[in-house]
Design a protein that fits this description.
With 350 residues, the protein is α/β, with parallel strands linked by helices. It contains 13 helices and 12 strands. InterPro entries: HTH_LacI, LacI/GalR-like_sensor, Lambda_DNA-bd_dom_sf, Peripla_BP_I.
Length: 350
């Protein structure tokens, strides 16, 4: 049986037409290159199967075998909510890429629409849940399904913010940090009248974003009155658009922070109805889970969803190797992209 050739830094450099020095800096997380270059290097390293000595040492310390004699199959549960399909695709991509490196696989299962305990329990029994190697619990699933999955006596990793004292490992992209990055960037451009737009109640992550906004604004010396912002769940789109227009007219914000990516197109529409252009009349930052092809220059914090999926896979393997260790909660923070949808305040005052 032929011995697999060891991948070197030169292999990655040649693949991307970069210098070995740039590749080495990227893998060590050092500054001095664009975020696009760093991502390309990390992706090539993953694809070619390269690991730094530090990575291999870290796997050994955590007792995670690089090669597994018994490939495992994990489950990724969703409830078929079309609204979050792209989000789930990114998580699944991260899970698959990492698990495949170790010889394991992940299968997606679509849960029944009903949230009744009896229906879900019957479905789990039909899926032979007792024989699962482990389960990944993503965000935006129904509460009843989440509770039953958390109660299973198999390895579980939440890709979400867990409830307090939940007995489970969790990994999640840090939306709170993303809000702080956004407010601090707007403050650096002298914006203090910031209109927050976003659901604050439907998911745990949404309430965390709103709380982070209030705290970040307090750091910037600004008090937040909830009546001056467009928050809560959207029940009627026309009413919501009218509310955005009313807040734009009454509070006269110089910047908008769109906290939920699915609102972005509607925010542009509401601003156009109110006679406000972006960024000419009002700057904009939006939290996005992927590159917006229609707005490649959108100023935004990177929500590292795929990377969180990859980290969740590592956490699952760690849990299998360390079943008696305390539960751990991991927040994955992305970088910030200063695009072209935020202008300094002097632009509006000039």
């Amino acid at each position: 049986m032929p011995i697999k050739k060891k991948v070197t830094l030169q292999d990655i450099a040649s693949e991307l037409n970069l210098t070995i020095h740039t590749v080495s800096k990227s893998l060590r997380g050092l500054p001095g290159m664009s975020e696009e270059t760093r991502r390309a290097v990390l992706e090539a390293a993953r694809r070619l199967g390269y690991r730094t000595k530090e990575q291999e040492r870290g796997l050994a310390v955590e007792h995670i075998p690089i090669f597994s004699a018994s490939p495992r199959v994990f489950k990724f549960i969703i409830n078929g909510n079309i609204l979050h399909s792209k989000l789930h695709q990114l998580i699944l991509q991260g899970l698959q890429e990492t698990l495949q490196e170790f010889g394991h696989t992940v299968q997606t299962l679509i849960a029944p629409e009903s949230d009744e305990a009896g229906v879900i329990e019957e479905w789990l029994e039909q899926q032979n849940v007792a024989y699962w190697n482990g389960v990944f619990i993503p965000p935006a699933i129904k509460p009843g399904l989440e509770r039953l999955l958390l109660s299973l006596k198999i390895p579980r990793v939440m890709i979400n913010f867990p409830m307090p004292a939940e007995k489970v490992d969790s990994v999640i992209w840090d939306v709170g940090a993303a809000i702080w990055q956004s407010v601090r960037y707007l403050a650096s451009m002298k914006h203090t009248r910031i209109l927050y737009i976003g659901d604050t109640v439907r998911h745990r992550g949404f309430s965390i974003r709103w709380r982070a906004f209030k705290e970040a604004m307090e750091e910037a010396g600004q008090n937040v009155n909830s009546e001056d912002h467009v928050i809560g769940a959207i029940s009627d789109k026309e009413q919501w658009i009218a509310e955005v227009g009313e807040k734009l007219k009454r509070t006269k914000p110089t910047a908008i922070l769109s906290a939920v990516q699915y609102d972005l197109a509607w925010i542009y529409y509401a601003c156009s109805l109110a006679g406000r252009s972006i960024p000419g009349d009002c700057s904009l930052i939006s939290l996005e889970d992927d590159l917006n092809e229609l707005l490649p220059g959108l100023t935004r914090p990177f929500l590292v969803v795929r990377e969180a999926g990859a980290r969740a896979a590592e956490r699952m393997l760690w849990r299998l190797a360390n079943p008696s260790k305390p539960y751990e909660h991991t927040f994955v923070q992305g970088a910030f992209y200063a695009g072209n949808t935020v202008l300094p305040l002097k632009h509006f005052e000039g």
